[in-house]
């Protein structure tokens, strides 16, 4: 073990002198996390949309739609209403400022209350697809309620009820929907972009960081020092152990530095330190296992770097390091479970929202350790064989 | 191989053989080296020198045969036997992003040297190869010759009983080559057994007490320099440097016992062909006549013919 530590210390000294290691391990993930968080801004788990309304009708049903639907309490955190003076202005600002515009023509309320066909128009922004879809859904929902009301009124009149049909219609459409949206996250605290992209970028660059360490054996071969090591009175597995220790230390140092830096600089929330430490340790081991396995397939340091990059990017894409898992398609959400970084990111997300339950974190730790054991076991066996060749 | 007479050999190789696919790299090579002896393994590129050395140092597993260092068998896991060997590989096997001193401290630690003993040996080896004042510079900043010298120092740190040098002068400038050869010459006096591979006859003749000639994986001849010359025949061509009247030099050298023919060149050097059996002692230092003086009062072997 003592000689393994000597090898590890030498490797770490070399890595610390290499400025590219500092960039890959700490600067790049921190900068990228900051940029992405700033680009998303605010709180990316709560969606916001702005709708323009041009009300040329001014009638009770138009008012019911604007006040009862668009400005309903359930949508106040999601929808901002901007009333404009004309349909032309509404269309104009939809091109750049708002998600969609509702154009309510004159006579809209009168048409409905007299059981005549009525129309109002939704103009959607080409750039803001989700906001446009929400506007369409709200309009369709309101139209369905109007139709239902008209049907109810016609039924009431046909059955001989002594009520004013117009009053009945107004009363029915003004009734708020029975289902309301309570927009909150599972842990009770909303996840900030920094709390997602901090871990996401840290995990993505972790593969490159451990790659720098894991390439050590091939680098020794390239510089000719591998022969000198093998001629020394030191066993091959001691050399491999030393290099593995250095790689682990590098990965842990990178992750822990990023945790501190992203908390201090970006306001990222990581969760309880001990739980985070356990998760980080298992994630580093899993990344090491995969990278060592991938690199054991390479014959040169350049090949190894290429293979490791491909593996890191593929795992990041599958694991949700670039796109939040919650916003990914269902298939991609399932595919994240094939990657250790996907599991770790889910657990970090839970911790970031202040989730009390540790089951997700414990599962993620176990899965990462299993990845590490399988891939690392094969990779280290191959590396030791390479040493003996 | 039975080794008769003299002190027990440090290195004994017996029937070493190694094949790479269908190509036979080494075929039944056997020799021994005693303490304080310098043994040259001479042969052209591809003769099997590096493969032989790799098996001796435990880098390659021999298909057949045995290597013993200090009485212990050498294989890839033989840490005790490996501790008796100092290995200087053909390529520069150093970490360019560490200083010379850091490189030596690391390798010393691998050989079990610790604390003040390690620092003493690092300092001594840096001094031996003339790099004491550059020890704290990154190896990356060293010239090629300086890197070669540090490469040798790394093999000497633990005071090995056997030093194996694999063509240490390949690709170095004449000045560094001279410094390397002088360092190796000094080692023999310290009782270290030296195995030196080269494809330069001149180096083998200058440095080695005994020479083995390797060709196509086989040891085709072995013996002292004189024994090999007697075996193969031929003569040495010797170049002497002198200042002054060269014809007078030529006449003086021609009087030396064993010299057959002397030619005075335009470059201030005399070329002599001594007899094959043994070289005569060099002319004594100092000007033997007012007309000329030796600028290098030693025989410098130019080639064998």
Count of helix runs of chain A? 16
The profile of the biggest β sheet of chain B is: 6 strands, mixed
Contiguous low-pLDDT stretches of chain B (5 residues minimum) are 275-279
Q: Which two chains have the most extensive interface, and how many residues on each?
A: A-B, 21 and 29 residues
N-to-C CA distance of chain A: 23 Å
Rounded mean pLDDT of chain B is 81
Q: What is the level 1 CATH name of the domain at 1-84 and 194-233 in chain B?
A: Alpha Beta
Secondary structure layout:
The complex is a heterodimer of chains A (389) and B (305).
Chain A: H1 2-17, H2 19-40, E1 49-55, H3 60-70, E2 79-84, H4 87-94, E3 100-104, H5 108-113, E4 121-124, H6 129-158, H7 165-174, H8 193-214, H9 216-223, H10 225-231, H11 236-266, H12 273-296, H13 301-319, H14 330-335, H15 340-352, H16 359-388
Parallel strand pairs in A: 1-2, 1-3
Antiparallel strand pairs in A: 3-4
Helix pairs in contact in A: 1-11, 2-8, 2-11, 6-7, 8-11, 8-12, 8-13, 8-15, 11-12, 12-13, 12-15, 12-16, 13-15, 15-16
Chain B: E1 9-20, E2 23-34, E3 38-42, H1 49-56, E4 64-69, E5 72-73, H2 79-82, E6 85-88, H3 100-110, H4 115-128, H5 144-156, E7 162-166, H6 174-188, E8 193-198, H7 201-207, E9 210-215, E10 218-224, H8 225-232, E11 236-244, H9 246-254, E12 259-264, E13 269-274, E14 292-304
Parallel strand pairs in B: 3-8, 3-9, 6-7, 7-8
Antiparallel strand pairs in B: 1-2, 1-4, 4-5, 9-10, 11-13, 11-14, 12-13
Helix pairs in contact in B: 3-4, 4-5, 5-6
């Amino acid at each position: 073990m003592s000689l393994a530590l000597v090898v590890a210390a030498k490797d770490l000294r070399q890595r610390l002198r290499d400025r590219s290691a500092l960039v890959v391990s700490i600067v790049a993930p921190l900068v990228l996390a900051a940029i992405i968080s700033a680009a998303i801004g605010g709180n990316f788990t709560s969606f916001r949309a702005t709708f323009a309304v041009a009300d040329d009708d001014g009638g009770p049903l138009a008012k019911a739609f604007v006040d009862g639907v668009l400005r309903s309490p359930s949508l106040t955190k999601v929808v901002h209403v901007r009333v404009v003076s004309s349909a032309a202005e509404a269309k104009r600002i939809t091109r750049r400022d708002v998600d969609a515009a509702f154009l309510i023509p004159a006579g809209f309320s009168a048409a409905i209350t007299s059981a005549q066909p009525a129309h109002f128009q939704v103009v959607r922004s080409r750039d803001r697809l989700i906001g446009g879809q929400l506007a369409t859904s709200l309009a369709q929902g309101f139209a369905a309620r109007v139709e239902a009301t008209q049907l109810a009124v016609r039924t009431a009149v046909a059955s001989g009820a002594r009520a004013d049909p117009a009053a009945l219609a107004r009363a029915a459409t003004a009734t708020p929907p029975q289902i309301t949206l309570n927009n909150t996250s599972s842990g009770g605290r909303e996840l900030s972009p920094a709390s997602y992209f901090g871990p996401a970028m840290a995990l993505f660059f972790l593969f490159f960081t451990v790659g720098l360490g894991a390439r050590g054996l091939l680098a020794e071969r390239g510089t000719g020092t591998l022969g000198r090591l093998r001629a020394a009175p030191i066993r091959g597995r001691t050399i491999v152990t030393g290099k593995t220790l250095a790689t682990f230390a590098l990965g842990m140092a990178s992750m822990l530095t990023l945790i501190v830096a992203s908390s201090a600089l970006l306001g990222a929330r990581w969760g309880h330190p001990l739980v985070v430490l356990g998760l980080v340790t298992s994630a580093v081991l899993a990344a090491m296992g995969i990278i060592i396995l991938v690199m054991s397939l390479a014959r040169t340091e350049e090949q190894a770097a290429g293979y490791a990059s491909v593996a890191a990017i593929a795992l990041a894409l599958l694991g949700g390091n670039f796109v939040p898992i919650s916003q990914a398609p269902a298939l991609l959400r399932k595919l994240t479970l094939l990657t250790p970084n996907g599991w770790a990111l889910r657990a970090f997300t839970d911790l970031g929202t202040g989730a009390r339950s540790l089951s997700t974190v414990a599962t993620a730790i176990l899965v990462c350790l299993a990845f590490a054991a399988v891939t690392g076991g094969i990779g280290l066996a191959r590396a030791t064989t390479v040493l003996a060749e | 191989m039975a080794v008769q007479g003299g002190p027990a050999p440090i290195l004994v190789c017996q029937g070493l053989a190694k094949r790479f696919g269908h190509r036979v790299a080494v075929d039944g090579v056997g020799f021994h080296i005693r303490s304080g002896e310098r043994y040259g393994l001479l042969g052209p590129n591809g003769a099997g020198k590096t493969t032989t050395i790799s098996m001796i140092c435990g880098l390659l597993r021999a298909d057949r045969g045995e290597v013993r260092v200090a009485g212990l068998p050498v294989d890839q896991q033989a840490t005790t036997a490996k501790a008796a060997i100092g290995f200087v590989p053909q390529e520069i096997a150093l970490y360019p992003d560490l200083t010379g001193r850091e490189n030596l401290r690391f390798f010393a630690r691998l050989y079990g040297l610790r604390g003040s003993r390690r620092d003493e040996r690092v300092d001594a080896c840096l001094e031996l190869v003339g790099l004491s004042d550059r020890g704290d510079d990154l190896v990356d900043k060293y010239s090629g010759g300086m890197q070669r010298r540090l490469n040798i120092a790394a093999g000497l740190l633990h005071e090995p009983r056997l030093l194996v040098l694999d063509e240490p002068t390949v690709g170095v400038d004449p000045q560094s080559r001279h410094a390397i050869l002088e360092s190796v010459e000094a080692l023999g006096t310290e009782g270290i057994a030296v195995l030196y591979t080269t494809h330069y006859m001149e180096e083998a003749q200058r440095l080695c007490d005994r020479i083995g000639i390797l060709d196509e994986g086989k040891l085709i001849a072995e013996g002292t320099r004189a024994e090999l010359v007697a075996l193969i025949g031929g003569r040495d061509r010797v170049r002497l440097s002198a200042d002054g009247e060269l014809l007078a030099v030529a006449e003086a050298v021609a009087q030396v016992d064993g010299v057959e023919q002397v030619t005075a060149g335009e470059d201030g050097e005399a070329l002599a062909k001594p007899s094959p059996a043994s070289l005569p002692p060099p002319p004594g230092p100092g000007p033997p006549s007012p007309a000329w003086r030796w600028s290098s009062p030693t025989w410098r072997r130019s080639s064998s013919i």
